[in-house]
Amino acid sequence: MSANNHELNKFPWKHVIGLALSLILTLLALWVVVSLSLPTVATLTIIVLLAICQAFIQLLMFMHINENHGRGYRILAIAFGFYIAAVVVYGSLWIMWFTV
Amino acid sequence: METTNHTPIEYSTEEGSNKILGFWVFLGAEIVLFSALFSVYLVLHSHTAGGPTSKDLFEVREFMIETFLLLISSFTCGLGTIELRRHNVKGLVAWLVITLLLGLGFVGMELNEFITYVTVEHATIQTSAFLSGFFVLVGTHGAHVSLGIVWMICVVIQLLRRGVTPVTARKAFIIGLYWHFLDVVWIFIFTAVYLTGLVL
């Protein structure tokens, strides 16, 4: 049925790389927290950046967000969701921890 | 990009395409739902009211195993989507069953974690604002995974009875999206709840 589609007949490297990167980034985040004694703000910044990288790995490598078939609308929906999430979470923390 | 001359079966009908797009919009709304729970948890993290703190409760070994179970289940679920596009029902069902077992392992570990907190550590949802935020955030994610397990079992039954049709393909693709999304949420729980709980 889809013999002419070479994507489908290859070994799923994209998924294997995605899994390997997820595991590496997870262990890296744990290592930063447990073994490195960085200042708190630096530690938190690094692990949040690592989490954002992992979210992109899931979206790009496992969820096919970048395929055709309505890519623009799909990315718009998810990007808007993440925008609201960032405003709600960062905004709440900024207000609650605000000192003059 | 690869699809100029080949459309995957789950997108082959207009209804299928529209329902998949609708599900992405739903996932966008789920991100917003979880963001509210994350901000409540993070704001109340230090409000332990004399009860146990995150440093007292969280065990590295336990939450790392939970994380690996969910990461690997996301991978096996992704391999299922590849088999779906090869129209290989047996391969798809096999990967979905492996995903289900890993998911059940995750839910079992999380239940065990909650039971330990409540019975051994006397850390209940009523103990402190920190624990209310914790149980609601992590519990909402756990409830999503549990629902996903029931949903995936239903999809597996339909696949076994009807094979890969445009309708069952769309359902199998959407449960895959849902499962990967739960992994994305867990990555942020792992970071903002468990790792941050060891630091702050």
From TrEMBL, chain A:
Q: List membrane-spanning regions.
A: 12-34, 40-63, 75-97
Q: Which reaction does it catalyse?
A: 2 a quinol + O2 = 2 a quinone + 2 H2O
Q: Cellular location of this protein?
A: Cell membrane
- State if Isomerase is listed as a keyword: no
Q: Does the keyword Acetylation apply?
A: no
Q: Which domain of life is it from?
A: Bacteria
What is the predominant subcellular site recorded for this chain? membrane
Q: What are the alphabetically sorted keywords of the record?
A: Cell membrane, Membrane, Oxidoreductase, Transmembrane, Transmembrane helix
Question: Which segments does the entry list as coiled coil?
Answer: none
Family annotation (InterPro entries):
Cyt_c_oxidase_su4_prok, Cytochrome_c_oxidase_bac_sub4, QoxD
State the EC number(s): 1.10.3.-
Q: Which Pfam families match?
A: COX4_pro
List the membrane topology term(s): Multi-pass membrane protein
Q: Which family does it belong to?
A: Belongs to the cytochrome c oxidase bacterial subunit 4 family.
Check the record and name the PANTHER family matching this protein: CYTOCHROME BO(3) UBIQUINOL OXIDASE SUBUNIT 4
Function recorded in the entry? Catalyzes quinol oxidation with the concomitant reduction of oxygen to water.
Can you say what this protein is called? Quinol oxidase subunit 4
Q: Which organism is it from?
A: Terrilactibacillus laevilacticus
TrEMBL record, chain B:
Q: What is its EC number?
A: 1.10.3.-
Indicate the segments forming the Heme-copper oxidase subunit III family profile domain, all copies: 1-198
Major subcellular site: membrane
Query: Keywords assigned by UniProt?
Result: Cell membrane, Membrane, Oxidoreductase, Transmembrane, Transmembrane helix
UniProt topology in membrane: Multi-pass membrane protein
- Transmembrane parts of this sequence: 21-43, 63-82, 89-109, 129-160, 172-195
To which protein family does this belong? Belongs to the cytochrome c oxidase subunit 3 family.
What does this gene product do? Catalyzes quinol oxidation with the concomitant reduction of oxygen to water.
NCBIfam families reported in the protein's UniProt record: QoxC (TIGR02897)
Its protein name is Quinol oxidase subunit 3
> What is the protein's species of origin?
Terrilactibacillus laevilacticus
